[in-house]
Amino acid sequence: MSGELDLVFTGSGGQRQAFRTRIKGLEAFLEGRGLFLPVRDISGNGCSVDAEGQDFVVGDDFQVDLYVNKKLFLAGLAATVVRRLPDGALGCSFDRLDRRQEARLDKLILEVQKRQIATKKASVCDEELEK
Prior knowledge:
- With 131 residues, the chain is an alpha+beta fold.
- The chain is built from 1 helix and 6 strands; from the N terminus they run ββββββα.
- β2 and β3 (46-50) form a beta hairpin.
């Protein structure tokens, strides 16, 4: 054993590069279109939104404001449509996030992860008690 460690990251072929999560009540406001769209899932790299009936195409760029339960959480995210699914969903990547935007987005996703872990632990504990 040589003591070396090789790490290989692949990001092509549609592989997700970041943890994605669903957040109840999360909406994306597309400033240029004046539209609120429900967010299906989000990560530090992008999001998926329900855009059925809208005329977006791959490559469209826009500014996104994120709202949680109708309250502005994060404004002015640059986004690009990277895929359009047959059911009308859009896959969008976030572009050129500044440090503040990146930190706020990471915090939101981390809080959701913590809650998911706590919920999972609680259900495991409940199962153990029932045995």
